[in-house]
């Protein structure tokens, strides 16, 4: 008996030890798996816990020149805010200017040593045309600048980008507007020349664009060190080649093999490290009026409508209706009529952000027989019996919402997804290599950013899906294998979970300067998110901080940085961004080095052609080139 007992004890202990070892092994591998990915962080990134509309990608710039990149974020129609970077920890968003604002660009256009920020102001759908607003940044103070002798044009502002268009070493300006019907087709795609005396003077225009056709990528398609412009957002992409004198010629048919439409963002990327810029196009369709989505697992119903009548099919949801993130901007942001009597639902507090509402059946009985939508525009919500509810109304601005605990719902039909496109630069023409490079995927995608996330010496792609309102939105991370192809990485954990949110804005930033590039995502009708890069690898990296040139005091924006190491040559442009309307001023240019341990040759060519070169050891993690 005793022997059996001791055997059982020994057996149990032995098994416990084995089980513990297995659990430990699984735990360690689980940790390793977790670290081979990104992690959303909150302590380092305080934010507004409100669901707000967005406008474009965040803008990265070291505004206070403390050696850490700050962020400018735009919650559309609410405010442009700065998040100061305090040595790897962001401060809470600080309001710079309130109201309807769009594109943002940063640069020292008057060469006084301080950065200026230009912000494109909306025009109230044509009723309140205004010119762009410029602030000078001194330390952490934003000082409004007076208008120029000839003020910037009044417009429904959209795109602003500081860029040296004539290679004279100072920053000119692209200043594009949503077309105003009152202009009767006259172009509002203005090009301003820097007169060298601190003013931007109207020089010329690009041909007029229609509706949202002001979305802009600045790049160099033919390696002549003259900036070229690609316009998109309405119908087919248009490619304008720069002449070097602030004028451009349309070379679309010459350089593209076919028409490209439904483009939501464009990124320049030298994906094969051959010394020229290739192009990646995200493509997707916006929601159609009346589209609805139903998640059977969570029983969530999402919908989209705009400019006219909304009428969802009656749905079963019980005695309490739980609504999350209902959004529609002015004039329908706070007009909710409840029950047969259509009494006003009263909101206590601000109504700009998404609204979470719980309605009890007994407070919402019935639905009006013939709602007077023309006289009382807005949302109509009522309980119509047998656990069923009805949501309808008449809304002008785009509107979305999510309803919880919906017992079965037949969602609407959806347009077929379309594929993104990767074009390889072949000198005189771009060639489609989408399938060859393994990035062919039929989806609805809205944004893209480029960086070497795994530091292997080849740039990767992070693509943001549109999402379907009632599902988590997982991004697509394509890692470059260094052999002119990509592999989609699984388990990267770059996922936003804002119900009712739409994928929209993304930017890369090494916010804590640890040599690994992190990601900021702005979810349209959702929140801002910061994902820290925790990918486990032993690859090295080098960050080149580019300052003004030594000889001509040329600003770093637009400078081309090239590094050569262990037979691999890489290039990036200071400030490059796939932002639709804005432009970065990130002077911390990051390069992955793989396992290279030899010396690195660094070359910076400024916009006027001035060149600075330096050779550094592979052990260097960060260097400064330019004026100290």
Write the layout of secondary structure elements.
Blueprint: H1 2-35, E1 38-41, E2 59-61, E3 70-75, E4 79-83, E5 94-98, E6 101-107, E7 116-121, E8 133-138, E9 141-144, E10 156-163, E11 172-178, E12 189-194, E13 200-206, E14 215-219, E15 228-232, E16 238-242, E17 248-250, H2 252-255, E18 263-269, E19 278-283, E20 292-295, E21 300-305, E22 308-311, E23 315-316, E24 320-328, E25 336-338, E26 343-344, E27 355-360, E28 378-385, E29 388-395, E30 399-403, E31 418-419, E32 421-425, E33 430-432, E34 442-443, E35 445-451, E36 460-465, E37 473-474, E38 476-480, E39 486-488, E40 495-496, E41 502-509, E42 518-524, E43 528-533, E44 540-546, E45 560-565, E46 568-573, E47 588-594, E48 600-605, E49 611-616, E50 622-625
Parallel strand pairs: 25-28, 44-50
Antiparallel strand pairs: 1-43, 2-3, 3-4, 4-5, 6-7, 7-8, 8-9, 10-11, 11-12, 12-13, 14-15, 15-16, 16-17, 18-19, 19-32, 20-21, 21-30, 22-29, 23-29, 24-27, 24-30, 25-26, 28-29, 31-34, 32-33, 35-36, 36-38, 37-40, 38-39, 41-42, 42-43, 44-47, 45-46, 45-48, 48-49
């Amino acid at each position: 008996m005793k022997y059996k007992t001791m055997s059982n004890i020994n057996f149990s202990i032995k098994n416990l030890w084995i089980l513990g070892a297995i659990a430990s092994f699984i735990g360690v591998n689980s940790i390793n798996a977790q670290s081979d990915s990104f992690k959303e962080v909150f302590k380092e990134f305080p934010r507004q816990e409100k669901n707000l509309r967005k406008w474009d990608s965040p803008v990265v710039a070291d505004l206070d020149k403390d050696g850490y990149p700050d962020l400018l974020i735009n919650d559309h129609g609410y405010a442009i805010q700065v998040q100061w970077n305090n040595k790897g920890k962001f401060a809470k968003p600080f309001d710079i200017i309130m109201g309807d604002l769009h594109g943002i660009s940063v640069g020292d256009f008057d060469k006084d040593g301080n950065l200026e920020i230009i912000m494109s102001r909306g025009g109230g759908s044509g009723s309140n045309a205004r010119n762009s607003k410029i602030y000078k940044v001194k330390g952490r103070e934003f000082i409004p600048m007076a208008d120029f002798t000839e003020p910037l044009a009044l417009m429904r502002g959209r795109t602003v980008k500081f860029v040296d268009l004539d290679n004279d070493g100072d920053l000119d300006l692209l200043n594009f507007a949503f077309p105003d019907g009152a202009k009767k087709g006259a172009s509002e795609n203005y090009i301003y020349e820097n007169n060298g005396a601190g003013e931007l003077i109207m020089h010329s225009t690009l041909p007029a664009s229609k509706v949202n056709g002001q979305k802009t990528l600045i790049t160099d398609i033919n390696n002549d060190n003259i900036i070229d412009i690609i316009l998109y957002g309405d119908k087919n992409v248009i490619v304008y080649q720069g002449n070097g004198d602030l004028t451009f010629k349309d070379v679309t048919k010459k350089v593209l093999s076919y028409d490209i439409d439904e483009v939501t963002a464009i990124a320049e990327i030298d994906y094969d490290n051959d010394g020229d810029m290739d192009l990646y196009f995200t493509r997707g369709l916006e929601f159609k009026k009346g589209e609805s989505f139903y998640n059977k697992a969570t029983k969530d119903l999402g919908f989209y409508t705009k400019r006219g009548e909304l009428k969802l099919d009656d749905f079963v949801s019980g005695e309490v209706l739980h609504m999350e993130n209902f959004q529609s901007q002015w004039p329908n942001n706070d007009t909710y009529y409840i029950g047969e009597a259509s009494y006003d639902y009263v909101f206590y507090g601000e109504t700009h952000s998404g609204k979470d509402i719980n309605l009890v059946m007994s407070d919402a009985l019935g639905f009006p027989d013939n709602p007077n939508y023309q006289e009382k525009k807005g949302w109509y919500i009522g309980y119509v019996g047998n656990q069923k509810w009805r949501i309808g109304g008449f809304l002008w601005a785009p509107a979305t919402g999510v309803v919880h605990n919906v017992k079965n719902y037949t969602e609407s039909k959806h347009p077929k997804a379309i594929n993104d496109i990767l074009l390889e630069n072949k000198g005189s023409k771009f060639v489609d290599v989408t399938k060859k490079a393994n990035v062919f995927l039929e989806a609805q995608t809205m944004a893209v950013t480029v960086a070497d996330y795994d530091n292997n010496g080849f740039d990767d792609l992070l693509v943001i899906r549109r999402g379907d309102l009632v599902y988590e939105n997982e991004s697509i991370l394509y890692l470059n294998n260094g052999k002119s192809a990509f592999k989609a990485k699984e388990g990267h954990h770059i996922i936003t979970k804002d119900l009712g949110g739409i994928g929209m804005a993304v930017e890369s930033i090494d916010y804590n300067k640890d040599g690994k590039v992190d990601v900021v995502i702005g979810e349209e009708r959702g929140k801002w998110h910061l994902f820290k890069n925790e990918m486990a690898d032993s690859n090295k990296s080098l960050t080149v901080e580019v300052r003004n040139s030594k000889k001509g005091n040329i600003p770093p924006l637009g400078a081309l940085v090239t590094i050569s190491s262990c037979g691999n040559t890489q290039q990036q442009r200071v400030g490059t961004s796939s932002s639709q309307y804005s432009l970065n001023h990130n002077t911390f240019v990051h390069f992955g080095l793989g396992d290279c341990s030899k010396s690195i040759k660094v070359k910076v060519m400024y916009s006027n052609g001035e060149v600075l070169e330096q050779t550094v050891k592979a052990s260097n993690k960060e260097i400064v080139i330019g004026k100290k």
